[in-house]
């Protein structure tokens, strides 16, 4: 009997530990961690994803966290009161470490996604992460730990991968990443973000600031033009794509006007360039707020699983 194994065209990283810890309280009442479970469930319901094809990560170890974050900061984040204050979570338990556990789980997922992207040669989506504001000794903007930087340092430690490109299309600049990698020529930070976000801790290797009333057409043009330039000047061995859905016009917090269709075109374009240049790619959701935000990432993963180019 001949059995035909169909390998997935993309992989998903997720674990039930992604569902602990962060309540929808305080400043972040429109950030919904359950949207990732919803995405997973919908992909399975739509028969696009099989449970056996989901990759289950381990939480990030303190040794790995220490590749980026300082000893002093790691000591502080073990205190739930500090974590609640740092993230401005007003009503959350001060008795247990569930918020920290959430971040450790998702950071472990990004690390795991990166190793799998390299070994499987297919795009790997983490259903969480993209905490690009976190700095070695500071939390910022709902980012306690910097999963991207931790994964990059770990990959460099354990593999032959040399040059890493961060493509950050979140509405905000990834100031944690620009700061962490500002003196590291092997990590290229490329960011397109809203021009109201212009107080830099450190500049990216390429910062493109766009106005909030940018049209779909011009937004996509800027992405194509600049990515082409980046890929011709920097020989990347691995890409981290922060696919923030907050430029979407339905976003609750940001003010850009990009349509759902153009968001999908944007996302599929990044994947197609990675494929064209044969560069492994890890995808992280980054920011995205409001009832429709899950749909943007869902439609992206759906297209990747179907092999849309
Ligand atoms: Zn954002």
Folded structure, characterized:
- It is a single chain.
- With 309 residues, the chain is of the alpha/beta class.
- The chain is built from ten helices and eight strands.
- The protein has an eight-stranded parallel β-sheet with strand order 2-1-3-8-7-4-5-6, sandwiched between helices.
- Strand 1, helix 1 and strand 2 form a beta-alpha-beta unit.
- The chain is globular and about 50 Å long.
- The structure holds zinc ion (ZN).
- The site of zinc ion has 7 residues, from loops.
- Zinc ion binds next to loops.
Which terms summarize this structure?
binds zinc ion, alpha/beta, 8-stranded parallel sheet, globular, 10 helices, Arginase, Chain A, 309 residues
Mean of pLDDT: 91
Q: Count up the helices.
A: 10
- Overall body shape: globular
* Rg estimate, integer Å: 18 Å
Overall number of structural domains: 1
* CATH topology descriptor: Arginase, Chain A
The low-confidence parts are 25-29
Class based on secondary structure composition and strand pairing:
alpha/beta
Brief write-up:
This protein has 10 helices and 8 strands. By secondary structure, it is an alpha/beta fold. The radius of gyration is 18 Å and the shape is globular.
